[in-house]
Amino acid sequence: MKYHKLKILSTAKVEDGVELPVTGSSFLFHEDKVITYSIEMDELPPEPILPDPLQEFLKEQEKKKMQEELEFAEKFQIRVGQYFYDQEQGLSPIPVVEEKFFETTTSKELSGLFRNFFAKSDSVLSKFKKNKRAYLLYSDPGMGKSALIRKFCREASEVEGTAILQVGGEVDFQKLTNIFLKSYATNVKRIILVIEDFGKRDFANNTSIYNPSCLNFLDGVAGLFRVPTLILCTTNFIKQLGPQLTNRPGRFNKLIKVLPPSDEEVFSLIKELSNIEMTEEQKSAFRGKEMTPDHIIEALLRHELEDMSLEKAAEEVLNEREGLTAWN
Fold it and tell me: Is beta strand 190-196 parallel, antiparallel or unpaired with respect to 162-168?
């Protein structure tokens, strides 16, 4: 914007001989003075544009949201690989290591069941609009539930695009829901969620304590499971969980009892581990006892380390199992 600018050139007393401008300026008489001046054209500087408080607030909120998204992705985003979930620290990679595992009829059947879900996930989604399958594995302690799941996860992790998330203990299902609702890493094609020791037993009331928000998580709110998701949970308290979990196929699609090895599988394990050709007396010490792989291995260790007969070692382990350490 243009404006006229008055510039005073000189001020002199009116008297004889005062020089007056001829061109380029003007003059006037004021009282006893002659004032010489000029008028110049100039540009006004543009008025500053004051920031809109609302727009500034919205920009700040957007910036804050982007920062939170980056921090969330760094700590909690579901990514390809095996990770352990800590509610405060985020996801930590779990090293994939080889582990001795003894196959049983049960473990073979369950591994096949889990693989079958992923093999048919496209068809299931198309027909039933379901992208999640949840299994609850239960048994007395030591039957190999966790070992079976670890073996399956090791095999599954070799398939491209597999994200494995393991949680345990007190689970904040509301936070877990938030993790699943956020964006996954772009290369995630399928998810395995492992929840160990589902529910905590309240011995005083003979019930199980669990976070009620787990029901909403297992029900699967809209958009929660966007890729084929297999949920594997273990518990030693199946009878205390209640019908809201054990009689709702939309939450846990199937309850699976993990059985101990058969007698023939026990004899095969002993031969594989210690190369013992068992006598009938030795077989009788193990036959029909429903010993877990852990019990069998401990009997073999006592036989070797303590110069104890295999029959005596089996008897001692069984007596301990039925004594104070029994599951009642």
Answer: parallel
* CB 232 within 8 Å of CB 137: yes
pTM recorded for the entire structure: 0.74
For residue 22, what are the CA distances in angstroms to 16, 28, 30, 36, 122?
Answer: 17, 13, 19, 11, 97
Element (H, E) at 78: none
Give tens-digit pLDDT for 100-134: 788 888 888 999 999 999 999 999 888 888 899 99
Architecture label for domain 71-257 = 3-Layer(aba) Sandwich (3.40)
Q: Where are the domains of the chain?
A: 2-43, 71-257, 263-322
Q: Which long-range CB contacts under 8 A does 44-53 form with residues at least 24 apart?
A: 44/1, 44/2, 44/3
Q: Give 257-260's long-range contacts (Cβ < 8 A, gap of 24+).
A: 257/138, 257/139, 258/106, 258/110, 258/137, 258/138, 258/139, 258/143, 258/144, 258/145, 258/148, 259/104, 259/105, 259/106, 259/139, 259/143, 260/143, 260/290, 260/291, 260/292
Burial 208-234 (b: 16+ CB within 10 A, else e): bebbeebeebbebeeebbebbbbbbbb
CA distance 31 to 16: 15
Residue 194, both tokens: 């492992």
* Token pair recorded at residue 28: 């006037």
